[in-house]
Specification:
The protein is an alpha/beta fold and 277 residues long. The chain has a single domain, classed as DHBP synthase, CATH 3.90.870.10. Helices cover 29% and strands 20% of the residues. The protein has a six-stranded mixed beta sheet, with helices on both faces. It has a six-stranded mixed beta sheet with strand order 6-7-5-10-11-12, covered by helices on one side. Helix 1 crosses helix 5. The model has no long low-confidence stretch (mean pLDDT 92).
């Protein structure tokens, strides 16, 4: 657990491997994730419940999945995707979104996805996958961790205390390690940091340092103004609608705003003592 007693960085191969081994052992780890921080753990029910309780939210709250691009497609039941969404077009869209930065995708869950990671929408069993984007060095940590497990994915959530615990209307994700560490003081939470947090934010100019935008493809939301089938904005997060829509259009899709996506997520202010060391 030496990550508790010294700064550890996501661009350091040894630190990434140490963090991966901790996750594989059942220890939740907060880590750099695109331009913010996320909290990842083993994907078994006990570990997901532990991470939920650490955040201060209900132990049975459904988790999201984190994996590498290699295993992403295996998370979903492609036979249950509406036929108006051609798989090849979706994959090309997802690859462009992943190259741009952090993103979330919600689709029909593969049969292998356990109940504690599966959501439900209108009788459809769904899986929410979130990624830091293909350029984030945390992908190497994720790859190492899943190589130590019997499942090709981790469970992931935002690195913040839950509003259930704080009583706030909303608790945005952290994008600085120091306030993150203070938020979880006493929980012995290891943190794998960005080497330069300001640079991590600058590397994603189209992404606010908040939890990911979530795009749903498990149900058909009708046709957009141009006659293209619409995917659903499940959460208005880091990638703004104005930046998302042209990307969708390039791949033949429109956007429908989901019931919970009418307001964009809030963002934390910079920590008053400056960026984390």
């Amino acid at each position: 657990m030496d990550l508790l007693y010294r700064p550890a960085y996501v661009d350091d191969a040894t630190d990434r491997l140490t963090a991966a081994a901790l996750i594989a052992s059942g220890q939740p780890v907060a880590h750099a994730f695109g331009n913010i921080y996320a909290l990842s753990t083993r994907p078994d029910a006990k570990s997901v419940a532990r991470a939920n309780l650490m955040k201060g939210r209900p132990s049975g709250q459904t988790g999201s999945a984190l994996t590498t691009r290699r295993h992403m497609e295996g998370l979903f039941d492609w036979d249950a995707v509406p036929r108006v969404f051609p798989r090849a077009s979706l994959i090309a869209l997802f690859d462009e979104l992943l190259e741009a930065g952090p993103i979330g995708l919600r689709g029909p869950a593969a049969a292998s996805i356990p109940a504690h990671l599966a959501g439900e929408d209108g009788g459809r069993r769904t899986l929410q996958f979130v990624s830091p984007g293909s350029r984030c060095p945390s992908n190497a940590m994720v790859s190492a961790a899943i190589g130590m497990l019997d499942r090709p994915y981790l469970s992931v959530t935002s690195a913040n205390r839950s509003h259930h615990a704080t009583g706030a209307a909303e608790e945005p994700a952290h994008f600085e390690a120091l306030p993150l560490a203070l938020d979880f003081a006493g929980t012995r939470l290891p943190i794998l940091r960005h080497r330069d947090e300001a640079a991590a934010r600058a590397a994603h100019p189209r992404h606010a340092p908040i939890s990911t935008t979530i795009l749903g493809f498990h149900r058909y939301a009708g046709l957009g103004p141009e006659g293209c089938p619409a995917l659903t904005l499940e959460r208005h997060g880091s990638l703004d609608i104005g930046d998302l829509m042209p990307i969708l259009a390039r791949h033949g899709f429109a956007l429908a705003i989901g019931a919970k996506a009418g307001r964009r997520l809030g963002q934390r202010p910079l920590f008053s003592f400056g960026a984390a060391a």
